[in-house]
Amino acid sequence: MATELKDLTKRADNYSQWYNDLVIKADLAEQAPVRGCMIIKPYGFAIWEKMKEQLDKMFKETGAQNAYFPLLIPKSFLSKEAEHVKGFAKECAVVTHYRLKSSEDGSSVEVDPSARLDEELIIRPTSETIIWNTYRNWIHSYRDLPLMCNQWCNVMRWEMRTRPFLRTSEFLWQEGHTAHATREEAEEEAKKMLHVYADFAENWMAVPVIQGVKSETERFAGALDTYTIEAMMQDGKALQSGTSHFLGQNFAKSFDVTFLNKENKPEYVWATSWGVSTRLMGALIMVHSDDNGLVLPPKLAPIQVVIIPISRNQEQLAAITEKLNPVISQLKALGVTVKFDDADNKRPGFKFADYELKGVPVRLVMGGRDLENNTIEIMRRDTLDKENVSFDGIVERVTKLLEDIQSNLLEKAKTYRDSRITECDDYEVFKEKVKDGGFFLCHWDGTEETEAKIKEETQATIRCVPFAFEQTPGTDMVSGKPAKYRVIIARSY
Description:
Blueprint: H1 2-6, H2 15-25, E1 29-31, E2 38-40, H3 42-61, E3 65-66, E4 72-74, H4 75-78, H5 82-88, E5 93-97, E6 100-102, E7 109-111, E8 116-123, H6 128-138, E9 147-156, E10 170-180, H7 183-203, E11 209-213, E12 225-232, E13 238-248, H8 250-254, E14 258-260, E15 266-268, E16 270-277, H9 279-288, E17 305-309, H10 314-333, E18 338-340, H11 348-357, E19 362-366, H12 368-373, E20 375-380, E21 386-390, H13 394-419, E22 421-423, H14 427-433, E23 439-444, H15 448-458, E24 461-466, E25 474-475, E26 482-483, E27 485-490
Parallel strand pairs: 3-9, 17-18, 17-19, 22-23
Antiparallel strand pairs: 1-2, 4-8, 5-8, 6-7, 9-10, 10-16, 11-12, 11-24, 12-13, 13-16, 14-15, 19-20, 20-21, 23-27, 24-27, 25-26
């Protein structure tokens, strides 16, 4: 493991390669035999499960219920909402046949041409179409509203350039789909779910985010408004980390989903959809981790505390274990996940490097001298600070340290992000500075032409019109035309 750590690319040398190395070396994921897909390994999936568990709880607190809808969607469904099919057509994977046939000796297989489907099926890139086709059968009266479903599933989008967690052809996510009686209720729901995502990102992932609304060209296909949370990675690039969409009545009209209102008159329902994916794993890695490996916020760490005994013989190991057992029991009773690593298959130095690489927040080490002196070594992963402390009160010290690490990671990330948000009114200055990353608050005239020119000339995009910054009219730095507000512009993943 020490060799693996040594081989980890430094962030300053090649940030992109550092990320790819870390995903592999920290046992998070590996490439699958299918292009653009990944195998999420047990340690990586344990982090995703903790994310999923908390998010699921938060969704249910808003009134959403979990359901499941089919993986395969009739191709005709996608053509019912024009903007939707336009947005996803190039990414769709299509099922055309339902059977293979093999050679007589079984050495090869090929598609059976006689088994072509009457209607081709799309492997879901997202589920609006199949869900709204279903909602037509579930919604009849205003008494059936609001209808709020969420599903945890996988989706397929045939990406040309892929990177583990950040952009893969198949990925895991959740997608919420809600139906409402009024426009106001639907818009409120879309914004509410954005706040849920921001709450999770900041208070569980320790990742500060900027909330805002996307420009028209950056909206979800078929939405009237797309709300987003944007996070800044350590290289200054933006990562769209969650979106919530106000869909208006577009899908309701496409699939003829109506309800009888209180006056017994038919109306089309109003809709939202919202989702986050395993891209959050990428954000977690890139916001906090360092040249020694992962740095995980305690709330999402599969192992929050690792305890390593160092002994000269079995008798000493037994004595150290006896002293540590009550601490392990007390921590577990408090809900802290603890690993007691007394295996003799690796030297202590290898274990230290391994747990640093995997981002375990707190490490406790007790040796023979510590046993005699009633002390223990404690190290925090976020700063790598370590000290020998009294064994007395170690449970309280550890639980307090976990809280400190969680808050310190958020504060550190927020301080870094805020230091790299810059107001800019000069396009030439912007073009030079954006190469080094950062978020730029720039006036925008609201036109697609200006947006396209910025993207073409700088590879930066308008991330959102941010809610948190006071908006004042000004002059667009590109076109010189009047601008109503400033937008966040950045290069992104």
